[in-house]
């Protein structure tokens, strides 16, 4: 789901004013746009349109990009182009935009003549065009750099990943099995405001439909999943065949319904499953493997958290659902875990990922097979999506590192200890003041800059703690 390259349209803007003076200018600048696309080939699959020299050209190009289901539009000034030709276009833009403030030659030399001035005059076209974007209320990113450098490719790649994540987010459906946890206030939000402002929508799925789907699954697909688990995990011999088959049917049933309803993220609540009366156990291992396949997930019916896990997976790599369990002041860290759901793609490389038989009183059901691991030590980032009321949303982000801390043998859940770069005290004071929620996504690596670009494009307030 989340490992394909971003697919970006390159919109090169110029005008026909200079054709008489420089008859070859359109072809020359078109070649320059193609060279820029080739420079970006490691970070995005680029579709380069012919130079847009009029309002009709620009609007036709962007319609083609939208119809091709691209992730975003990279705007390059091939010469100066008057912004009124693209003003209406930007007021109706549906795809994320980045304005690349670049020029063919990196330096001004004594050899330059009027032709060189014309080829390299993109900066004042960028100013006029950016002014039109601002007046149109368009959220956009800007990159000023030498185009034929790694720094340019890296920076555009960051925007392209954010564009890919945001474009997917705007059409996201989050399946909720049952209902959200009663009384959990930081997960509450206005569904209409969420879809208007950001795009994700909620699709409620009755637990009874999941139960029926489980029963209709053919035995061979269940066996296939169990065989795959035998090869991937260290499987607890205490798990019975019946326990594993029931868990497998839960996982396959959830994925079948997510596919049927077009949901790329979901949430289950233990009470909604437990109170139904037809289920034997909670789908713990299912959440872990579905996250590893690229689905967004959150517990307790938390749509906001499931949405941000989905965004994190597409923006940064594998998204790991977690929460802050307890502070450890001697190591200046926070124990991160949840009831038993976690993306095993972020597990340590030097320990096996285990599928265990694990007692769990929550839900008043039988023991749920659970995937257990410790999070890989190294740089990591937490992100929490906060509903502020109306159509205002905030993303609270903390960079830090997962410590190579001693094991906690009695903790039969995915876990790790996260040390914020600002320290536990300062981080938590700022997190709480910002209204950061108790469910969040963890991504490996320092990803605050990626999240900041995402927020810029999405119109979300970015708050780093």
UniProtKB/TrEMBL annotation:
Domain L-arabinose isomerase C-terminal: 319-461
Alphabetized GO MF terms: L-arabinose isomerase activity; metal ion binding
Organism domain of life: Bacteria
CDD domains xref list: L-fuc_L-ara-isomerases
GO biological process, one term: L-arabinose catabolic process to D-xylulose 5-phosphate
GO CC aspect terms: cytosol
Keyword field: Arabinose catabolism, Carbohydrate metabolism, Isomerase, Manganese, Metal-binding
Signal peptide stretch: none
L-arabinose isomerase N-terminal domain span: 15-169
Residues annotated as domain L-arabinose isomerase central: 196-311
Keyword Metal-binding: yes
Entry protein name: L-arabinose isomerase
Species of provenance: Nocardiopsis ansamitocini
């Amino acid at each position: 789901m989340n490992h394909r390259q971003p697919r970006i349209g390159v919109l090169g803007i110029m005008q026909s004013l200079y054709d008489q003076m420089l008859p070859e200018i359109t072809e020359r600048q078109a070649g320059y746009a193609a060279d820029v696309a080739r420079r970006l080939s490691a970070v995005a699959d680029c579709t380069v349109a012919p130079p847009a020299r009029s309002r009709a050209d620009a609007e036709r190009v962007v319609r083609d990009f939208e119809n091709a289901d691209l992730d975003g539009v990279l705007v390059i000034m091939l010469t100066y182009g008057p912004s009124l030709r693209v003003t209406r276009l930007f007021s109706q833009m549906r795809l994320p935009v980045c304005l690349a403030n670049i020029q063919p030659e990196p330096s001004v030399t004594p050899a330059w003549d009027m032709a060189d001035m014309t080829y390299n005059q993109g900066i004042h076209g960028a100013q006029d065009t950016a002014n039109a974007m601002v007046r149109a209320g368009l959220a956009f990113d800007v990159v000023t750099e030498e185009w034929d450098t790694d720094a340019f490719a890296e920076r555009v790649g960051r925007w392209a990943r954010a564009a890919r994540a945001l474009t997917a987010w705007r059409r996201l459906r989050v399946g909720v099995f049952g209902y959200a946890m009663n009384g959990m206030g930081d997960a509450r939000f206005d569904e209409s405001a969420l879809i208007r402002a950001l795009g994700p929508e909620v699709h409620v799925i009755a637990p009874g439909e999941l139960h029926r789907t489980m029963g209709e699954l053919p035995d061979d697909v269940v066996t296939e999943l169990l065989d795959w688990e035998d090869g991937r995990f260290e499987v607890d011999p205490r798990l019975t065949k019946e326990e594993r088959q029931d868990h497998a049917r839960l996982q396959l049933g959830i994925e079948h319904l997510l596919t049927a309803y077009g949901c790329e993220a979901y949430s289950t609540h233990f009470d909604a499953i437990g109170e139904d009366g037809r289920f034997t156990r909670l789908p713990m291992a299912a959440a872990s493997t579905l996250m590893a396949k690229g689905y967004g997930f959150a517990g307790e019916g938390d749509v906001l958290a499931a949405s941000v896990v989905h965004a994190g997976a597409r923006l940064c790599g594998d998204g790991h659902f977690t929460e802050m369990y307890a502070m450890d002041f001697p190591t200046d860290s926070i124990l991160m875990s949840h009831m038993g759901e976690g993306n095993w793609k972020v597990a340590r490389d030097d320990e096996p990922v285990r599928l265990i038989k694990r007692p769990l009183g929550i839900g008043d059901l039988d023991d749920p097979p659970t995937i257990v691991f410790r999070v890989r030590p190294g740089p990591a980032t937490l992100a929490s999506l906060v509903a502020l009321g109306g159509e205002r949303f905030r993303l609270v982000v903390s960079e830090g590192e997962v410590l190579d801390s001693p094991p906690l043998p009695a903790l039969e859940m995915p876990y790790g200890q996260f040390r914020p770069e600002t320290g536990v005290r300062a981080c938590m004071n700022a997190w709480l003041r910002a209204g950061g929620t108790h469910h969040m996504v963890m991504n490996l690596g320092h990803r605050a800059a990626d999240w900041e670009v995402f927020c810029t494009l999405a119109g979300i307030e970015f708050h780093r703690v």
